[in-house]
């Protein structure tokens, strides 16, 4: 099979096209012929070498395609099924290839109202948003929520889930006119509920967030951006509020959460949850992986019922080292609305 391989950690010039053996599914696995892949921020972080790994490496965590082989003991799917997949756990290779094998728990029937490109944009972002929003205690009735990074793939799904659950108002951030337009025109966020953060320090960001909520702290905050926005989330949450973050921080990140006299969490008796979509996939076993199957089913139902609309897409030409490199460069700017997808077949 053809694959786009990362030959060494570093820049996008490290991508190259190679012929690799077509993988064979083991017991409990399926093989998927890839139709479309999506690119996520985690991809460029792996490319840079932040998480290590064995080289050469095939990246890619999101894919849609058609099952073309199944291993022993596979139930619930069959050859010919159109699926979308999250490749965050055990697999033969990443999504940037013509085929991959993965345990059946990490694939699900493609939503009937999505094409392959639309479906490929959902797995990592959709499951992450679902897990973040559905955290116990995050949302209790029609209460206010602040979403740092609402125009990205995870944020745009989270906003729709929050609205489906009755959150009001939903406050979020925009770093550009394009992001602000996407939030208002595609996601229905009121302009007065969008925090334009460029050039503002943490104190001003906090003050403006509270102002957007009528001077009151928010019931919950979702950190999909990191850095100063994580600090803002921790400082604007109400008593007994909840913060969920999906963003890791570098060593030495200055946010004191443990000291009662300095911690914004102690001051508000608030909870902080770190959401890592790959936790069960990497550190768990088959019994833990069933959670993905259940969450995929919930996500698919929400998509097919139009509670969650298709993600805005930037579609690049057929997957090559050059087009994949372009996608990585675009993602690294941090101002892509929705998701970037590339066709494989």
By DSSP (H or I, 4+ residues per run), the number of helices equals 11
- End-to-end separation in angstroms reads 12 Å
Shape designation: globular
Into which percent range does the helicity of residues fall? 25-40%
Q: What value does the Rg take, in angstroms?
A: 20 Å
Residue stretches low in confidence (pLDDT < 50, at least 5 long) are none
Oligomer: single chain
Structural class: alpha/beta
DSSP E strands, number:
15
Return the average pLDDT rounded to an integer. Answer: 95
The major sheet is characterized as: 7 strands, mixed
Residue fraction in strands: 15-25%
Keyphrases for this structure?
15 strands, 24% strand, seven-stranded mixed beta sheet, alpha/beta, 345 residues, globular
Structure description:
The protein has 345 residues and is α/β, with parallel strands linked by helices. Helix content is 31%, strand content 24%. It has eleven helices and 15 strands. The strands form three sheets. Strands 3, 4, 5, 6, 7, 14 and 15 form a seven-stranded mixed beta sheet that branches. Helix 4 links the parallel strand 8 and strand 9 (170-174). Helix 3 packs across helix 4 (153-165) and helix 6 (202-212) packs across helix 7 (228-236). The longest helix has 19 residues, at 286-304.
